[in-house]
Amino acid sequence: MEYVLSDLASRLGGKVIGDKSYIVKSVASPDRPEDGAVVVAMTEKVFKDVPLHLPVVGLESWFSCRSFGISVPDTRLALAQTLALFRPTVEEPWGIDPSAVVHPTAEVAEDCCIGPLCVISKGTKVRSGSVLRARVFLGEDASVGENSVLEPGVTVYDRCRIGSNVIIHGNSVIGADGFGHIPASGERGTVKIPQIGSVILEDGVEIGACSTVDRGTIGDTVIGAGTKLDNHVQIAHNVVTGKNCLIISQVGMAGSSVIEDRVILAARSGVQEHVRVGEGATVAACGGATRDVPPGAVVSGFPARDHRSEMRKEALLRRLEDLFDRVKRLEKDRVRP
Fold first, then answer.
1. Could you tell me which residues come within 8 angstroms of residue 219 by beta carbon, excluding any fewer than 6 positions away?
2. 237 given a catalytic annotation
3. Beta bridge pairs of residue 27
4. Which of 79, 178, 252, 258 could cross-link with 40 by S-S, CB 3.0 to 4.6 Å?
5. pLDDT-derived band of residue 335, with 50, 70 and 90 as boundaries?
């Protein structure tokens, strides 16, 4: 794929600076610029380091030091748009691979791609344009909406509903039993609580590799439209997320916890059972939300509290050893004859 620089600028919603007729053949990372490529700079320092003969995408205020490239209002958005334009296309082998096992009562649209060794169980529906790569398993009465992609090794248990334009990356599991066990007396050890609910992934959801979304105990576990999960995320039974949330790697959401729209759970953070995180709030990395978080708040630490308060506490803790030494010296001076 090639683009004239002026055309690329139009697609990015930006403005050309310099040679409008330059042919862009690829996109390059700032540390490996190459002829014929465009570079998208995230910072002014990176912008200045790009060779002057190559076009660079950056903020308008940065172009005082060079006269070739595309000025844009948002470089992160421009990066996403540029990579989408130059992303390699994959020719899908539409149809059902001979090695796949499809139950006679399953409904699979004609324009789907069902890869090698997939299993589609009784009563399950796969809608138009969806792709199931090798070894995907769909349980009974499950459903996959239009134009969704399930990467190799994905497992979707019985009765789970996958929306349209959903992406589930390799080896993720949707709809396994939630962790429900009651301690019992005597030799019984524990009693398992049957998990009879399901999972709903709404339209536009993306699930990273090796992540798990457990089915509800009663009712459904719901991942709201447009929400994105990173790799190695655990979503417990009866969790409900709002729309367009970002849940980063190694997050754990305990049973029946709720996050509202546009919440960010940073890496290795957690939400305790039955806790609600309000709309637009952020739980910082390694933070633990043990009680409700107000809308728009930024919290950190364990237990999580207001981020600024937590930073002040950390600053004081770092001074504690020095303060202790000063007190010891003062006490020694006091007891001297």
1. 197, 238
2. yes
3. 38
4. 79
5. low
